[in-house]
Fold these 4 entries.
Entry 1:
Amino acid sequence: MNYRRVVPCLDVKHGRLVKGVNFVNLQDVGDPAENAAAYSAAGADELVFLDITATLENRKTLLDAVRRTVARITVPLTVGGGISSCQGIEELLALGVSKVSMNTAAVRNPDLVREAAAQFGRDKITVAIDTAQNAKMPSGFEVMIRGGTTGAGIDAVQWARQVEQLGAGAILPTSMDTDGKQTGYDIPMTRAIAEAVSLPVIASGGAGTLEHLYEAIADAHADAVLVASIAHFGTFSIRQMKEYLAGRGVPVRL
């Protein structure tokens, strides 16, 4: 059975869990390890931990916060933010992290994706693609780097195809246009990427209702849905999300 996964996302800044809108106006919502423990116990399939300012601040991921988070959970954890070398990946995997996610480093040095996949296995390597609408791009979506602050001048769908060829095991596309707004995922962008690759695609950015989760899977062909605001602020429990999807005929682990 190819289960669809519900994946809470922990955006972490200086060791604290935060949530913003369109990548800015961040507000503190607690301790990442405590929140991760609660989501793990509540039935989350996986968790994603993103050190969102590591690249901008030219530093590696905060290993202590990752270490504390891994210790509190029983589900796979993907960690991203500030990963720029195979040594950095090795350090995270040694802590018990299941997968790593890279974005800016992959754009700047695509060979890093190939090297990491060869060294650690493609199932360990997720490439995150932050996107923004740009009519000048063939697909209408541009790759954004450095925490969403810089346009890379690369078409998002073409980049997704390239990272699949480089050896990525999954793709995590986040729409800057919908992030944190709770108005729904960017379905056209997510669908375009999902249809361009054969890798698992994790929809991210904009979930506000249970219907949005279903749309990402049914309409955009996502294999998993990343949730943040609706989980952090208690709008819906993980159980409610999964029961809703199951009720709509989506295979989930209850």
Entry 2:
Amino acid sequence: MTITLRALAVVIALVLLSGATAAAQPSGTVTFGVHVTLATRWLDPADTDAEITPFMIFYALHDALVKPMPGGLNTPSLAESWTMSPDGRTWDFVLRKGTRFHNGDPVTAEDVKFSFERYKGVASSILKDRVREIQVVDAGRVRFHLKDPWPDFMTFYGTSASGAAWIVPKKYVEKVGEDGFKKAPIGAGPYKFVSFAPGIELVLEAFDGYWRKTPSVKRLVLRSIPDESTRAAALKRGEVDAVYFLNGPIAEDVRRTPGLTLTAMRTNGVLWLMFPEQWTPGSPWADRRVRLATSMAIDRQAINEAESLGFSGPTGNIVPRHQEFALAIDPPPYDPRRAKALLAEAGHPNGFDGGDFTPFPPYTGMGEAIVNYLAAVGIKLRIRTMERAALLTAWREKKIRNLFVGATGAAGNASTRLEAYATSRGTGAYGSLPDVEALFARQLQEMDRKKREEMLHQIQRILADHVVFAPIWENGFIRAYGPRLEEAGLKLIPSFPYSAPLEDLRLKPSAR
């Protein structure tokens, strides 16, 4: 009798263990309706633009030594720890044991060195100018030797201010080549590559070897649905589980729809007017009065209420208020009468033809409103729309002229933001001011935090006084998700607009 009871207990235990194991396995599919066309280069961290969009994919497919996570801006990931030498010139990273890429290869210090040297995206020049050497100490430890102490090393390297800390497999890239890697990328993230239709759809599958945890959702689909109304309709019909970027009446309609949840995040994103012709003598835009008139002609709060339900915050700075060393600057007041007077003082009493105006996709509603406000004071513009990847390429190559909306959602601090858009080293800058260049170079070397803050504040005041940019708002990015999701991952990482960490995504039991 005793033996029978023991045998029964063993059977019951095995059944329970089997059930627990089965329950832990990834299951189900989650589909995201993405607001932009998916670019091939976003599969590869080496080509990271000065915007947050590629990180929507990086958090699934790849992993970084250090990255923003729920625990903080610099959270240990593939590196379990790091130390800085007393002189600030040497940084040692200890890799987490047991991490591996999707093909089973271990993540090693050689991969870290290779990924950094291969990196050519935003902030690559400043990183490589300041890193003297990368030393592979052993398979599990890598050492960065800086030329000089640099207080912003981890801000540039370990946040979304660049993609330099995201690690790719050296052996695989060398085997398949650059083009081959983009066609079939292998990463170390929670999801592995299944298929990609450029501009249309990316399919990923859970990687059960991910160090942090096995994802609970088996398959992720990122589906490009650029049209906002189509995206919202797909969410309502249950064709997608979550959507990015909703605005105005469509967002309000989704908010009122039973079963759907609307949420917004004030991100690192700022949108502003770029004046590329301000550096061209003789151009109307070269006159500060014209740029100030342009800024004063725009009713930012009215656009905010109409386009983003008031979730965004009008600003006079391209650096968001919550970032380190940011200076809170209010935008100039909406004053069309003063704007017309400034144009008259600048020699344009009847306004002028400003040429093409390029909005930042998918913020076309904002762009249309800006064009209407400027037309009301006499600045005539023709809207020229571009797909986002094409716009970013044209911007980087300095091919967009006249007037356009610039934007970025990269993390970092005031220094990283200003480097990209207000200095001669910046990939997004068409020109720079000598005073800004001198102050920026000095603050990079300054280890005293208070002195550094004073210099960065001075730079931000100079840029505002010269109206180098006409900032519109700090973006309140609106997302929504449907009834199948128990955890949508949309509020886990502060200031991050997309779902992440994706291994924390969960479906409701009834939806698995």
Entry 3:
Amino acid sequence: MGVETADIDTRARGTSEANAAAFAPRADDVFARIATRYDSLCDLFSVGAHRLWKEHLARRIAELPGREVLDLATGTGDIPARVLRRLPAGHGRTLRVTDLCPQMLDMARAKLRGAPAGVSLDLADAEGLSDFADASMDIVSIAFAMKICDRRRVAAEAFRVLRPGGRFLVLEAARIPWAPLHTTYLAYMDLCLPLIARLATGGDRGAYDYLLKGVHTFPSQGAFAAELAAIGFREVSWRDLTLGIVALHEARKPG
């Protein structure tokens, strides 16, 4: 579908919770528990579609100018791995790959083994990037983790570490623009996802509860774009993928 731009809906800003899934990583180490199965669970939950969605993000990162790239909440390192496959030899880029969960970062480290110089992996909280200087990055990306973070804090930190003109890219659950279809999709998720996840994870409710809550309560594309604009980003746009089940948002730090 086409790119939606600055006609941002400021009337509806979605849930009042900045963390759509109400996830508290220090209270529940669910991602540590499922780190070794995370990729296969993504395939299962999305029927493989997450691979196509991530390719859209990786392609956009690879085609944007800029030397310093920071990937937040990387999980098993899918996004940087896909970006590296798209970059030519001798590209000269630096990729900083981060996650809050050591077990997830271990999976990313294994996936990125043999990556060229300039790729580093760091334990870091997307909500507080204390190890990253102001105006030090050209691109900041995050995929499918904004719904389990305080999204306003993450966006504010991305804004801080980006250089003027830098880009913030967010791949996240969205809302299908045609309301009846979106309602049907949510009903399907409510019915099927808990059963699939319970079978796949041996009854670990945490593996799907956050996903379901985040899908239900993450703001609409226009409302999320309005939040980014309120932080100071400009040229905020999004592209709906798979009818709007997910969206790829892009915003520029002015300067």
Entry 4:
Amino acid sequence: MNHWTEIKIAVNSDEIEKAGNIANMVVPYGIYIEDYANLEQEIQDIAHIDLIDEALLKRDRSKAFVHIYLEPDVSPAEAVAFLSERYNAENIKHSIELLDCAEEDWRNNWKKYFNPIPIGKKLLIRPGWRDDYDPKGRQVLSIDPGIAFGTGGHETTRLCLEMCEKYIKKGDCVLDVGCGSGILGIASLLLGAEKAVGVDIDAAAVKTAKENADINGVADKFTSICGSFTEKVEGKYDVVFANIVADAIIFLSKGIEAFMKNDAVYIMSGIIDTRAEEVKNSVKRYFNIIEEHFNNGWVCFVAKKII
């Protein structure tokens, strides 16, 4: 029997809505919120009763929980790394538990379900441990996400890879803010870019990105930086990726143009469709949005500087 994995995230109750929105980036279903902050009022509103079980009344009202359920073919390690990185970026104090599966199992069992993934017309994302594949003329990108986000399976990464294929030109310099496994920068190099810089706040992700660049033979062209947003970034780039959460894109868009050449392309994803208009309106203050793509509740914007 294939077992699902439960991720249980504890946060302060006043941050549960934001924490839940970020959790929806991992999986748009199989989530429920456990929050007792307004227990009496909610029970009165829903059930119209005043008698409440004593065990419920003793619950810690200062904490709330997000429960996520992952199918066997979804990497718990990747999901946990993604959640932790995004919560840290939003300054949300949190703790994460994995239930129903021993740690040594969830770190490895999901790999059997990670199959080579064709992206667009040119790329094939290949798990580093899989040799049974036929590239059929596609450029093969070997990836081992480790505990970093980015296998190509999530809609946000897929959307960015499709835009990468469309916009990368030979000799381009690429910046990826929130690089995770390094997949977008490495794909850019394999498609002809001359240089790629990946930035991530998570040191483990930076290490994984370096390793993946080496696996794909592009380590000499790939630079990974551990830092927040662009604080350690220098130079100007032809293509900039930001596959991060909506609030981070809104924040980043205010200053990212300083790192873009005049004709550069800015590719943004990680945006839940319910926040698409909010992000779009913010980004339009600094950029012309030239493309919009939607996939299974996720949005990708492509923009250029206003000159």
